[in-house]
Sequence to fold (314 residues):
Amino acid sequence: MTTDPYEALGLTKSATQDEIKKAYRKLVRTSHPDLHPDDAGAEARFKAIAAAHDLLKDPETRARFDAGEIDASGAERPQRQYYRDFAEDAGNPYQQRRGFEGRGDPADIFAEILRQRTQQGRDDFGGGGFAAPGPDFRYALEVPFLDAARGGEMRITLPDGASLAVRIPQGAHDGQTLRLRGKGGPGFGGGPSGDALISLSVRPHPVFRRDGNDILVTLPITIDEAVLGAKVTAPTITGPVNLTIPAGATSGRVLRLRGRGVARSGGKTAGDQLVELKIVAPPVIDDALRDFLTEWRKTHADDPRADLLNEALS
Fold:
């Protein structure tokens, strides 16, 4: 499987950040092992896709990869001139050491120096042995819209088949990364375990849309509700509420339900829900309604498009 992050996402280096995001979302749905339990290769593809997205979604990290400063895993690439520069320092004790002339890559020479010093019992790391934290593990998790808005808990499948509980914070947003301390790979030489980094993608909802901490809803109303006004039931992310439609309402009018949006950081206040009204004609026009509107039209010559047409021609 390719280690090139662009190839993993089916992109080229000229891809925009938006194209990277779209490609990642599409591939997650076709490769997540929980969604494709019978696909033996899904887990490997999923891990490669997640790692590629984590590297390329950050413009700074992407630029460093493109410049060759880091590899596809995000690790620093060895600086090829490091040993030579180090050796040319007048105070460097290795400059006059014999046995390394003509041995090739300076990075290999430097590695040999460290190996010999270790064999001699000499330790540049404080004399207590080398210890380092374990690697971070990266995962992608698709979250239902309401779980992201209200908070919740989900589980992800780990490479060894075990599962890990992930708490979704209230107000989680698309592209957010959660860090689970100590849930990554084991440390080296007694060092601490790495972390699990969970990249979230929020699944679209058929009714609700989100703009920051506000929730947007389009609410159908009948002709009589628009003309006469009414009390109707409107959905919110926390359950249905009563909403008053003012008499003479038109399609496109927006009503505000304060505090019915996504809770802000800390949970003390929340955004609003914005309800856009949409007048819907009845599915069947009976004779009574047709006759009434025919007579009504004869005595009402109001043209709601007059201003629009005048502005279009000005």
Q: What stands out?
A: The first strand starts at residue 137 and ends at 143. The chain has ten helices and eleven strands. The CA atoms of residues 85 and 106 lie 10 Å apart. The first helix runs from residue 5 to 8.
